[in-house]
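Entry for the shared binder. Reason: the reviewer on the internal report wants the predicted structure included alongside the sequence.
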Amino acid sequence: MKKLPLHTKIFIGLFAGLALGILTNFFFSGNENVTWFAANIAQPAGQIFLRMIFMIIVPLIFTAIALGVADFRDVKKIGRIGGRVLLFTFFITTISVLIGIFLVDLFRPGAGISEESRTALMQTLPNNQAVSGIITSAHEAKSFVQIILDLIPRNPFQEIVFYLDPNYRGGGLLALMFFALIFGLGMAVADYEKVEPLIKTLQGVYEVVMKMIDFAMKLAPYGVAALIFSTASQLGFKIILVLLNYVLIVLGALLIHFFFTYGAILKYVIKRSPVEFFKGIGEVIITAFSTSSSNATLPTSIRVTHEKLKVDKDITNFVLTVGSTANQNGTALYEGITVLFLAQFFGVDLTITQQLIVVFLAILAGVGTAGVPGGSLPLVVMVMQTIGVPAEGIGIILGVDRLLDMSRTVVNVSGDIVLACWVDATEKKKLQ
């Protein structure tokens, strides 16, 4: 095992946990001992790995952005790259949402559920604490103006402390990124001799953080196995069968976007082999799928993009760090499909105008989604309420959301890496 590369070990852990979880669910579904083991052994074991990753997210994001901006030492270049990131994010997210909307309109999965299954699903909704929490968060959704204001933190340390709190209504990681960006700009335009010790200190912190990532990733095969087992062993097959059309459409749309949209950009715009690209990011894909978190996958994404894909280090740090929160086009695709599916389920006929509103809101929601498991659900509810779909309906898809969350995270982080490759290619072409 020691001679195997890390991504192979992670894949073995993923496969072993998935196979064992599926077999356990099949033979011992509803068994109290299995439920206890998943909740008290497997899930905590997986959380140890996740917490090892999450504890270094803040220093990684701050040093990566601040150093990335400072090393450019060219404000115009920073603005140029930032503009490209925003342009790409809007463009690719729009495509992803349109793919999802087209498929859900074509196959109409919500209208195809039998009355018996519809009644059974509706009976799962009352008194559901998870649903109540999601709806409460959606009701507390901020206005567009407030979202912009919250990007500028009054107290950066407050954003750091509460960035993982699902009930925190501040800017979170986006606010921390803004602070790091301004901090980096300050270092870029200041007298280099005076800030050189600070830059070297931050470089030292960055190197230490990367070593800490190495420590955490040694636990990855075991943490991944535990996380996947706890999910697969508890995921009921009955709910999957009832919602099979919905699940297949989401997965199909994600696959189309992943292989065809990204593949076309790689081949015709970036001039890079899609096969070699997808092969090179295999470790990132496995980590994203098992953790369901763009933020938790960020350290692996940075290392793989720089070392295997040979993307400039400063561009890698800046683009991937921002993208882990801002470029969530897989999530936007999922949100568009989910809202239309639930509208069909409840018999709410949407006009073309309303569907365009869903497209627009899904694009905005994809940018504002937290890069943690389940972070998109409150925003889905917010979009549902906008077009008159009952908010309680979110409970219908909770049983399969974990599987879809794992899948859309893969698309999110892969899109960030495609973005980094595109920015790197355009910058190199400019120097020629």
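Summary line for the report: The chain is about 80% helix and 0% strand.
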